[in-house]
Amino acid sequence: MGINRFVFRKLVSELENRTWLCPTRYVTSEEQVAIFLRIARTGQGNAEMQERFQRSGDTISKCFHRVLNMLVSKPLGEIFALL
Question: Is this structure's pTM higher than 0.90?
Fold first, then answer.
């Protein structure tokens, strides 16, 4: 994905602690953030993400928008200050 695994884990941890990010019944917090980062980095569409993550289009869309809304609801400085 192009991000150090320790930084990725810290990002997920900070999002869980400072926002309402939590795993769903079928999708972990890490996978939700990975889906968001992959779409943001590559610009790939829903169909490509469905193939990559083996999830439905609805799940991909919900994960992307859930993480996006978390990031825009808090000042970015609060979330990334400790990374």
Answer: no
